Prior knowledge:
With 237 residues, this protein is of the alpha/beta class. Helix content is 33%, strand content 20%. The chain has two domains: 6-59 and 167-234, Ribulose 1,5 Bisphosphate Carboxylase/Oxygenase (2-Layer Sandwich), CATH 3.30.190; 75-160, CATH 3.40.50.790. α2 packs across α8 (184-200) and α8 (184-200) crosses α9 (228-234). The longest helix is centred in the last third of the chain and has 17 residues, at 184-200.
Amino acid sequence: xxxxxxxxxxxxxxxxxxxxxxxxxxxxxxxxxxxxxxxxxxxxxxxxxxxxxxxxxxxxxxxxxxxxxxxxxxxxxxxxxxxxxxxxxxxxxxxxxxxxxxxxxxxxxxxxxxxxxxxxxxxxxxxxxxxxxxxxxxxxxxxxxxxxxxxxxxxxxxxxxxxxxxxxxxxxxxxxxxxxxxxxxxxxxxxxxxxxxxxxxxxxxxxxxxxxxxxxxxxxxxxxxxxxxxxxxxxxx
Length: 237
């Protein structure tokens, strides 16, 4: 059994095990419980009432966070010809075609999000095993396979805080909503944007209770179980 330090134990002592917290209460307590020497990420873990093995119960998409994620997002774009110039002019950090594919095959992965123009996807497809397991593979469902004329908007959104959510094999969604240094209201507005996106993306095959539980935590801190009605209400704010 792992032995935790005094600071972690003090943070855990703030959690009432049987209580369901409002999002605002959880954020405030998470701030009090934060003891790390770095700016911790605030995370949401959602247990969904979906079957990951059922084709009509898949859940994947993106949410635009009004206050971003609190870090610089390095954007890579697979594009060639005029589209490559459009991407560079729009501020992408890395732009290329076969050259970038080769670099990634050789182990380079110094970027946070990747997108591609449709004509590049046959070349990018060979990177599926490398990028897929890291959640970096361009995909039409997440808006990262982008027509050249839409690249400026897509790159701008990625920089502002475009977060991807995806149902994993255990029917859980894990995602970040900002940093512990954010104001409480900023974290709640980011959380609301996530909830709005997930509620609107409810799969056609969903049965019974769509969201079963939600926990808010930080990189090093304890988890706070949230009241589902209060969480759902965030989407309407």
